[in-house]
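Can you please make up a whole protein chain along with its backbone structure tokens because I've never seen that pairing?
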Amino acid sequence: MTKAEFAARLKRACASVLAAEDELTEIDSRFGDADHGLTMAKIAGAISTAVDQAEGGIQAMLDDAAMAVMTLNGGSAVPLWNTWLDGMQEEAPEGNEIDVPGLQAIFARALETLDDMSGAKVGDKTMMDALIPASRAIISFQGSDEAALFAAAAQAAAQGAEDSKRFVSKFGRAKSYGEKTIGTPDAGAVSMSYFFQGLAQA
């Protein structure tokens, strides 16, 4: 996959998140600060612009995206997404092409970096409920087709976001609502799922 093809997938991922802004706001309004939709719109817009304007290879593009997110003012999602993207660029190739093993390496490194910072696991009702299954789907993928890899990740992320409805919130403002949060998905897991849905679009 070329840098241009990867950039196009990243931009579709951002567009998918932007299109879900109102839904993310509504979900977050139930037990959160009702700012997740706006925050994710800022993050998606920053990533998309950075990808559009990036010079150099794939590593430079992902580094630009991480830096663009880091400069934002917003909710708790900003440092989390910055950390995730920064982990991605650490393993990214400097050149303009990446294959399936390369994609597996950058998503594995990104998860490891964010895991060190977040500490949240599947079942804690956070973005990790979608990100961890999606990352594992990528890491364990067998084959050489990038489209199939992203499709597997998107499916795993969507299931993870759906599963988050069953969990009790253990982080953030929603934590104080306890079992009342059962039945509502985590907004961060849903936005991460939309990002992977976009990555999987041809």
